[in-house]
């Protein structure tokens, strides 16, 4: 048995002017979204590893300070790192965005996929 033929109303609905314009762009959009999603997931997992390393380092320093093997001047650490972290936080996101979307014709789809990947619960 053969499949029923498509009715004229469904074929005309599928060949709208908008679809005709978007059809050549779909491969770039889908690749951009997929690569953005994968990059978002990778950044999320790398961020978790970095936070774990920072946490373990803090615990190690606190243990050494507790057993009086080292003395840590936390006010001095804060004074040294605060300007660097403030500047890096403001400029880091802009720099990362420029690096990840440089020379990409599908930067919009990539950015959307990146946001979805960062928010995904995988």
UniProtKB/TrEMBL annotation:
Sequence intervals crossing the membrane: 25-43, 50-75, 95-118
PANTHER family for this protein: FUN14 DOMAIN CONTAINING, TRANSMEMBRANE PROTEIN
Family: Belongs to the FUN14 family.
Subcellular location: Membrane
Pfam hit, one: FUN14
Name of this protein: FUN14 domain-containing protein
Presence of the UniProt keyword Transmembrane in the record: yes
Sorted UniProt keywords: Membrane, Transmembrane, Transmembrane helix
Provenance organism: Deinococcus hohokamensis
InterPro entries per record: FUN14
């Amino acid at each position: 048995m053969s499949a029923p033929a498509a009715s004229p109303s469904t074929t005309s609905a599928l060949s709208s002017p908008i679809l005709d314009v978007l059809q050549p762009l779909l491969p770039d959009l889908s690749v951009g979204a997929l690569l953005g999603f994968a990059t978002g997931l990778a950044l999320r997992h790398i961020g978790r590893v970095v936070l774990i390393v920072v946490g373990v380092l803090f615990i190690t320093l606190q243990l050494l300070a507790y057993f009086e093997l080292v003395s840590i001047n936390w006010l001095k650490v804060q004074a040294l790192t605060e300007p660097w972290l403030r500047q890096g936080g403001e400029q880091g996101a802009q720099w990362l965005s420029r690096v990840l979307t440089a020379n990409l014709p599908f930067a919009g789809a990539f950015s959307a996929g990146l946001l979805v990947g960062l928010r995904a619960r995988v």
